[in-house]
Amino acid sequence: MPELAMVRRYEAAGFRAWPASFVQYDGTWVIRLTAGLPAKRLNSINPLDPGDGSNILDRIARAERRFDAYGRPLTFRISPLAGANLTRHLDRERWLSFSESIVMRLALDNAHLIGVMDQIPMKDIGRFVSAALQVHNMEPAMRPGLSEVIGSIEPEAGLFVSKEGDEPVATAICVQDRDLAGLFEVATKPELRGKGFGRQVVLSALKWARHRGAREAWLQVEADNAPAVTLYRSLGFADVYRYHYRRPQAS
Fold first, then answer.
1. DSSP state of 43
2. Is Acyltransferase included in the keywords of this UniProt record (predicted)?
């Protein structure tokens, strides 16, 4: 079991690095909603104190009204900070569990960055979003929402794109929050995976962050994304904790 203080540190950094457009607290539950993007991280209830397990039915009902107003499915993001009372309630109600993710970290003093290409991050959010939509194969309708989220990041954010010729082949966002460097939206075009482009863009982002004073890198990756997990572990990233999502079964 990870130290809860460490989990809280990464959870707080994640909220700052990937900000939702609407945030409301109900006790120590953080309700995050974003009209422009359907991503689960941006549209979920995030419990932050294992001891906060009172009035669960009423609080879920209040949150459900918020989610309905945004047209989002009611979703909990369950980290080690979710308490046993809440978990037992969701189990009794037979809420579905899905999309387990791993939070990983790497001390940048241990990162092998000698010989890694120096890359200057993009300044133009529009150009980066165009590249990200292409690499992720996302619908053009996602452009405004993704642009809004990136533009709302308060810590320093480096926008990285690897190209083959003029074509973007891999992307990453590195958010430096004091001594932490968080990696987000790391992706490689599916047909070009396994050729080193993802490794290249991640290492360039880590080198940039270390030059700016970051001491530790961290990221979140879906547990069933075996190629990505293998890549990160080969770079020296180690598991810190896991989280998953829960939704009520369709009636």
1. S
2. yes
What does the pLDDT read at residue 222? 97
Q: What are phi and psi of 159, to 5 degrees?
A: -105, 115
Going through 122-231 in order, the beta strands assigned E by DSSP cover 156-164, 167-177, 180-188, 216-222
Structural domain boundaries enclosing 14: 4-104+243-247
Determine the straight-line distance between the first and last CA of the chain, rounded to whole angstroms: 35
Nearest by Cα to 44 from 229, 220, 237: 220
CATH, residue 128: 3.40.630.30
Report residue 1's pLDDT band, with 50, 70 and 90 as the boundaries.
low
- Res. 59 pLDDT band, cuts 50 70 90: very high
Dihedral angle of Cα 42, 44, 50, 55, to the nearest 10 degrees: 140
Number of domains in the chain: 2
SS3 content of the chain, % helix, strand, coil (to 5): 40, 30, 30
CB 159 within 8 A of CB 119: no
Task: Assess whether 66 and 111 both reside in one domain.
Answer: no
Determine the Cα angle at 155 with ends 151 and 160, to 5°.
Answer: 65
224 and 128 together in one domain = yes
The pLDDT > 70 percentage for the chain reads: 99
Give which of 1, 238, 242, 215 is closest to 108, Cα–Cα: 215
How much is the pTM?
0.94
**CA-CA-CA-CA dihedral for 184, 248, 20, 208, to nearest 10:** -10
How far is residue 135's CA from residue 144's CA, in Å, rounded to a whole number? 17
